[in-house]
Amino acid sequence: MHRTTARLVVRPPTADDLESLFTIYGDPATHQFNPSGPLRDLGQAEALLHVWLKHWEDKGYGQWAISTCEAPQNLIGFGGLDARMYVDVERLNLGYRFAATAWGKGYATELSQAALDYGFEELGLNEVFAVVRPNHSASIRVLEKIGMRIVDFLDDVPGQPPSLVFKARRSG
Ligand SMILES: CC(C)(COP(=O)(O)OP(=O)(O)OC[C@H]1O[C@@H](n2cnc3c(N)ncnc32)[C@H](O)[C@@H]1OP(=O)(O)O)[C@@H](O)C(=O)NCCC(=O)NCCS
Fold first, then answer.
1. For 36-76, how does the pLDDT look when each residue is reduced to its tens digit (9 = 90+)?
2. What superfamily would CATH give domain 3-169?
């Protein structure tokens, strides 16, 4: 179930990834643009991991655990495609969260392109969506670099400007 890109290895998460998940998701730096803030304790990380594992079990795809080809034992982030409810519609959503030490190297772009290719070529999807806060320039840039475009707005944070909804369509 491992897949590789030019520099990254991705695989389904396992129960053994709990500590890495909490290290990355418990860091305030990785939640600067997430109104919910970082995970506070291992219990929250365990609950999130459980959701991911169940998603894999039910649908056969989901969030990937990500490392570099150079150091495959060391997780640097999580990301990929999963099914999300947008208002009342289930959509396939691209997401990613990398440890701060891994930022600025093009990894999110590489991961995201691999996730789109996987979605279109292997899952047979026609569309992939992503939701981003309007002031999250780095994440917006990642989505633009892989050819996604803004198609809608989502009022998902009360009292704050709406999030941007990006979409990519399968070509051909
Ligand atoms: C957002 C995130 C995924 C970016 O990961 P990354 O591996 O550094 O992204 P990449 O290197 O592939 O690309 C980032 C792009 O944004 C640009 N960028 C970075 N910071 C920026 C900023 N403050 N303003 C504008 N552009 C910025 C980079 O220059 C790069 O574009 P370029 O290739 O044209 O130069 C990473 O910071 C992260 O995991 N953050 C925490 C979790 C998170 O916010 N996830 C997204 C939720 S929507």
1. 999 999 999 999 999 999 999 999 999 999 999 999 999 99
2. Gcn5-related N-acetyltransferase (GNAT) (3.40.630.30)
